[in-house]
Amino acid sequence: MNPKVTILIPNYNGKKWLAQCLPTVEKTTYPNKEILVVNNGSTDDSARFLKENYPKVRVIEIKKNRGYAGANNFGVKKASGKYVLFLNNDTQLTPKFLEPLVEKMEKDKTIGAVQPQIRHMVNKKVIDSIGSFFTFTGFLYHYGYFQSHEEKKYNRELSVYSVKGACFLMQRKDYLDLGGIDESFVTYVEESDLCHRILLSGKKIIYVPGSIIYHFGGGDMSIMTKSEVVIFRSFRNRYVSYVKNLSTKKLILVLPVHFLLCELLIIMSIFRGKFKQAVASQVGVIGWIPNIPYILKQRKYIQSHIRKIDDDTLFASVERNPNLMYYSHFFFNPEGKFNEKEI
């Protein structure tokens, strides 16, 4: 018997993306699914478009935009599936992508989340994401990013530190038990923070190469946030996530290195004349500090109620440190775009 899957799609003024995404969702062959769109304070005609063209799609209207995190948390509470597939609206699915993901979860109860092979929608020969590894720098190693999907090493099942929020599957119960996505993050790093808690609970996160989708990247996020806001959130949210989730020993090792690299990135932004980026980055680096009492309260709960394994065990298979050439991508990026989705 096929367990029910809720395909959950947050949408903010994304009619043009829904018009491309939903036809591929409807063509998926998995038999027991519901499609649920959380219309997240949209002011375009997304609601009318959905009502007229997709009457079988469940639509939940939220009057005010609650961000990626809030929309997903709201949607999961309304979902009826055993599993929830978190899906961005700027994606296109292959017909049989869902079966391998569900099969993997059903066969191995030690798995907390799975991710498909996400290919770039424009250049379909390259990988957008197959998951990310943790590094000693605190920046994530986005394994296979923009590499050919035909390479054998990218077509092997892997345990990873984090999925990409564009598409991943997990049990609804696990999501709720772990507290869902931290809504203070709004967007950026939120999926990594959730994944860290999945790993702390003793479950694995698996990349399943037999499942394939396509992702444009950005989608309605470009409407929701300015670049400086993105930079602020990506810098701020990493610090919050690590303070909440890392053991004291690991935190002492990672945080100073991460801080020094962040400051180096800020200095380089100044030299390039990217003053707004530099300010946004610096505010992100220190902007979480006033919230320390609340963050420490979250940390206390996570470490005492969610953590089931030590960090040595947790990071044994999900920490990889790439060579220096990888880091040059964000140190010498001429665009100066230093955010969690790129580095």
Question: What attributes does this structure have?
Answer:
12 strands, 5-stranded mixed sheet, single chain, 343 residues
Number of strands: 12
**Large-scale geometry:** globular
Neighbour order of strands in the largest sheet: 3-2-1-4-11
Largest sheet: 5 strands, mixed
Low-confidence spans: pLDDT under 50, at least 5 residues? Answer: 334-343
Helix content: 40-55%
| Helical/strand content category | alpha/beta
- The mean pLDDT is 92
Spatial gap, N to C terminus: 41 Å
Determine the number of helices (DSSP H or I, runs of at least 4 residues): 13
String of helices and strands = EHEHEHEEHEEEEEEHHEHHHHHHH
Strand content: 15-25%
| Cα-atom radius of gyration | 19 Å
Topology:
Elements: E1 5-11, H1 15-26, E2 33-40, H2 46-53, E3 58-62, H3 67-78, E4 83-87, E5 91-93, H4 98-107, E6 111-120, E7 127-129, E8 132-133, E9 141-142, E10 158-159, E11 167-171, H5 172-177, H6 190-200, E12 204-215, H7 221-224, H8 227-245, H9 248-271, H10 275-287, H11 292-306, H12 311-315, H13 324-331
Helix pairs in contact: 6-8, 8-10, 8-11, 9-10
